[in-house]
Design goal:
7 helices; six-stranded mixed sheet; single chain; alpha/beta
Length: about 210
């Protein structure tokens, strides 16, 4: 079990949770969903003495990846996203940047250095991170699960007492609910969930109190 530290920053016009996940002993870190202000994220890691070893996206909407390219330039770290999210990342209409230029100031059509599949396990931060594909909010929604540390990064798939929207391109509401039940609610009840927006929660609480689930 690694001694992981999670630093949450609300960034961008939609108050997206950008996470810096670091091993307190090795000083290695990853960034999950660099939504905005790459300089801030870079300086935050620098102040802590962290070396960035990867930039991971839960999905390709602009409010979760607008700072990805700039952060890659600053850190030299590779970028990662779901294999099924290529279309979202590469199409400004699908990733919503074309309709949000007043908020984010640019149109983005991009891609990741590496693409991940459901069930992939990455050895990183002196521990293991499992990739859990949960389509619904977008076709390539990906959650990142650290079993030994009992934490899950859910992006816009699962929120505290809510779920992500499914009315954007590649979204599927029925699939979202089914996949949360089958892939996330089977995790240990005490798993801590770090969502893409809002407060952290716990699998136990969502199974009992989330109104989207009977």
């Amino acid at each position: 079990m690694a001694n992981l530290t999670v630093i949450t920053s609300e960034l961008g016009g939609f108050q997206t949770n950008c996470y810096v996940v670091a091993n307190a002993q090795t000083k290695e870190a990853i960034v999950i969903d660099p939504s905005w202000n790459a300089d801030y994220i870079y300086d935050l890691m620098g102040d802590k003495g962290y070396a960035c070893k990867g930039i991971f996206l839960t999905h390709g909407h602009v409010d979760h990846m607008a700072a990805m390219a700039d952060l890659k330039k600053l850190t030299g770290a590779d970028t990662y996203a779901s294999e099924d999210e290529r279309e979202v990342l590469g199409n400004s209409k699908v990733n919503l940047s074309a309709m949000m230029t007043q908020v984010f100031g640019k149109v983005i059509e991009t891609g990741a250095d590496h693409y991940l599949c459901d069930g992939d396990v990455r050895k990183i931060l002196d521990t293991e991170m499992k990739c859990i594909s949960v389509p619904g909010h977008t076709r390539g929604g990906m959650c990142y699960y650290f079993a030994s540390e009992n934490i899950l990064f859910s992006g816009d798939t699962l929120f505290k007492y809510s779920v992500g929207r499914s009315d954007f391109p590649t979204g599927d509401g029925a699939a979202l609910i089914e996949n949360i039940r089958e892939k996330l609610f089977v995790l240990p009840d005490d798993t801590i969930v770090y969502p893409g927006h809002g407060d952290m929660t716990q699998i136990r609480k969502e199974k009992k109190m989330n109104p989207f689930f009977d």
